[in-house]
Design a protein that fits this description.
The complex is a heterodimer of chains A (142) and B (432). Chain A is an alpha+beta fold and 142 residues long. Chain A contains 5 helices and 8 strands, in the order E-H-E-E-H-E-E-H-E-E-H-E-H. The chains are: A alpha+beta (142), B alpha/beta (432). At the A-B interface, strand 1, strand 2, strand 3 and strand 4 of A face helix 11 and strand 19 of B.
Chain lengths: 142, 432
């Protein structure tokens, strides 16, 4: 199961540069990024190739960062691709706390990432529905 | 116009005789409290040794810390059965202070407030809308009873609820209000927004209390409301409002010296300062039974006028407006706040660090206090929702402790100056 790094940031110019600067310096590649904003602060969420190292680097530099497990699944990059997943989530009564998606290969493969209360159960239910789940390695070395 | 003409126009010589007589009574009463008994013992001075007003300076000061340490009963100088009311400060638990009053004390306080109102030109025909909070805070009840004694019609509406305040102005033809200057400015904005003006009301007098303000603000308020304004000084330790009050000359506040001895001292050395020099106001109660206070350091900074004669006919010494504080107490929307109270709240929350900053500004003429805190890495799970909930929790805890609604800004660790050294904890951008 992949790991997502979340970083607390004040909502000010230069904050994203600081984080990406630290990651670039450590040779860390970002696969996906999203920012949840709440006025004067926000939470930056990152899918990176070395989540644990990323988290350590950020913490060592005085940032508040944490790692948590998310569920990432492969979906076809075509109309209705996400709808199929959404139906399953509805049927299985899986509630999403946060989600984002990105394209891996245009016209072929996209990835949908969800953050849920209980990732293990969600992963089992999705697998049982025939959905292909991705792990850390799958995401970065596809 | 006088409420008690004889005493209000007393000559200095007579006044000093009265002060000395009352001081000696006060000292004798004070000595029956645990606090003062010990204080006089340790100072190796007997109250009987005070034979002139000058001798007063031989006595040690009483401080807010003394009040806190002797909480709840250490300064009570009468049989508890004689106490009819208490007022307490808005301090946090363990920091609270209490002042006890007998029926005599409340009667005396009410009388001083009535004097103030009459000095301002209030009459029984006036409609008095008291816009200060009621309760443990002394601003509400203090003016309330004075206004009733004078025979004004009192509307005990308390603070806030601007629309209703304006409605009452119109419904009851309010002529006199008791209000904080900043709220008067805010209220005026609302009045303008409603398409109303001073012509729609019968207001003629504004009595200001509870917070410092500038002459510029006063001029703005006078212009907006077309009223006379009067400045009132008081603190709960000295009953509350009505310790000193402006007369029609609008030049300094007369201290009711038959009830208080006023000194101004150098806050560093404790030495008495001559008139005209700004220092800390020190007050001694002369007419209180339940809790006499001797040489109480108010932490308020002001100066005394040299001249004891005044066109109004009173010879009571005049005190300047309060120009600042000798400690770090802040007055926000009329509420006294110490930065240490905020610190105490934050220290109990593992989600945030102990570094903090208080930012004060005015938005639409209302004070706003923003508390900046650093979030702590250990408790973070990566969700915006948890941070929002944390902010709400901090706001709630602060409200419980300091009775104020605050803005809370969550900061990254290290964003604020560290707690050691001369960190600037308070940034006050208010123009008063």
């Amino acid at each position: 199961m992949p790991h997502q790094v979340a970083v607390f940031l004040e909502n000010k110019p230069g904050k994203l540069e600081r984080v990406t600067g630290l990651l670039a310096g450590a040779g860390i590649n970002i696969r996906a990024i999203t920012i949840a904003d709440s006025g004067d602060f926000g939470v930056l969420k990152l899918l990176v190739d070395k989540p644990a190292i990323t988290c350590n680097i950020l913490a060592q530099n005085g940032l508040v960062a944490t790692v948590r497990r998310v569920v990432a699944m492969k979906i076809p990059d075509k109309p209705g691709g996400l709808l199929n997943i959404a139906r399953i989530l509805t049927r299985q009564k899986i509630n999403i706390d946060d989600a984002y998606g990105f394209v891996l290969k245009s016209g072929e493969t996209a990835v949908f990432v969800i953050q849920v209360k209980d990732p293990d159960t969600a992963a089992d239910l999705l697998k049982a529905e025939g959905i292909q789940l991705l792990g850390d390695n799958d995401l970065y070395f596809l | 116009m006088y409420w008690s003409e004889e005493i209000e126009t007393i000559g200095r010589k007579e006044l000093e005789k009265l002060q000395l007589r009352r001081l000696r009574t006060s000292l004798r009463r004070a000595a029956s409290s645990r606090f003062y008994r010990e204080l006089f013992q340790n100072a190796a001075i007997k109250p009987e040794e005070i034979r002139s007003l000058k001798d007063l300076t031989r006595l040690p000061f009483t401080t807010k810390a003394d009040l806190r340490h002797s909480y709840p009963g250490g300064m009570l100088a009468v049989d508890p059965e004689k106490v009819v009311r208490i007022h307490a400060s808005s301090g946090t638990t363990g920091q609270s202070t209490v002042v006890y009053h007998t029926a005599h004390d409340l009667d005396g306080w009410t009388d001083l407030v009535t004097r103030c109102l009459v000095m301002a030109g209030c009459t029984p025909r006036d409609i008095f809308q008291n816009m200060m909070s009621y309760g443990l805070f002394t601003g509400g009840l203090g003016l309330h009873y004075g206004a009733e004694r004078l025979g004004m019609m009192v509307i005990p509406v308390g603070g806030g609820n601007t629309d209703r305040q304006i409605q009452f102005f119109r419904d009851f033809g309010t002529t006199v209000i008791h209000i904080t200057p900043s709220y008067a400015l805010h209220l005026n904005d609302v009045i303008k927004d409603m398409g109303l003006s001073h012509r729609d009301f019968k207001l003629r007098l504004l009595i200001f209390g509870a917070e410092p303000y500038s002459e510029a603000t006063r001029a703005k308020i006078v212009e907006a409301y077309r009223v006379d304004t009067y400045n009132c000084y008081g603190l709960s330790e000295m009953n509350g409002p009505g310790v000193a009050f402006e007369c029609g000359a609008s030049d300094g506040m007369h201290v009711w010296e038959d009830n208080y001895i006023v000194e101004v001292i150098d806050p560093e050395s404790g030495e008495s300062l001559p008139p005209g020099k700004i220092g800390e106001v020190v007050l001694t109660t002369l007419n209180r039974e339940a809790m006499p206070l001797i040489r109480y350091r108010t932490r308020d900074l002001a100066f005394l006028y040299e001249d004891t004669s005044c066109p109004c006919g009173r010879n009571f010494r005049r005190l300047s407006r309060i120009v600042g504080r000798a400690d770090d107490m802040l007055i926000v929307r009329g509420v006294n706040v110490f930065p240490s109270q905020v610190e105490q709240v934050l220290m109990k929350l593992p989600e945030v660090g102990t570094n903090y900053q208080l930012l004060l500004d005015r938005v639409e003429n209302l004070d706003r206090m923003t508390v900046r805190v650093e979030i702590s890495g250990r408790m973070f799970h990566g969700e915006v929702g948890e941070l929002r909930a944390l902010r709400k929790k901090i706001q709630h805890e602060l409200k419980e402790q300091i009775l104020l609604t605050t803005e809370v800004e969550l900061m990254e660790p290290g964003a604020l100056p560290p707690s050691r050294g001369k960190a600037k904890r308070v940034i006050d951008n208010r123009e008063i």
